[in-house]
């Protein structure tokens, strides 16, 4: 049986910004970042906190997401 999320990851270009939802004990978790690798069993996503390896067997959803918004300008306190 095919899984659209896994099919998407297998066909996505490396460097694509993605969000990947995986099953964990007690629920689900998301990884948001850049797709760095994908093979038959795992994919790697580079997030703000580092690169995570995700088992494709645990992937329940995945999609491309737009680039992050630009940083907001700092507010000047006391002006």
Feature tags:
SH3_Rv0428c, 1 helix, 10% helix, single chain, mainly beta
How does this model look, in words?
- InterPro entries: SH3_Rv0428c.
- This is Histone acetyltransferase Rv0428c-like SH3 domain-containing protein.
- It is a single chain.
- The protein has one helix spanning about 5-10; strands spanning about 15-25, 25-40, 40-45, 50-55, 60-65.
- It has about 80 residues and is mainly beta.
- It has a single domain, classed as SH3 type barrels.
- A 5-stranded antiparallel β-sheet has the order 4-3-2-1-5, covered by helices on one side.
- The radius of gyration is 15 Å and the shape is elongated.
- The termini are far apart.
Order of H and E elements: HEEEEE
CATH topology: SH3 type barrels
- Number of DSSP strand runs: 5
Proportion of beta-strand residues: over 45%
Q: What is the overall pLDDT average?
A: 93
Structural class determined from secondary elements: mainly beta
| Number of H- or I-type helical stretches | 1
Share of helical residues: 10-25%
Number of domain modules = 1
- The strands making up the biggest β-sheet line up spatially as 4-3-2-1-5
* Spans where pLDDT lies below 50 across 5 or more residues: none
Question: Could you tell me the radius of gyration in angstroms?
Answer: 15 Å
Tell me the name of the CATH class: Mainly Beta
Overall shape: it is elongated
In the CATH hierarchy, what is the architecture at level 2?
A: Roll
Query: Main beta sheet, described?
Result: 5 strands, antiparallel
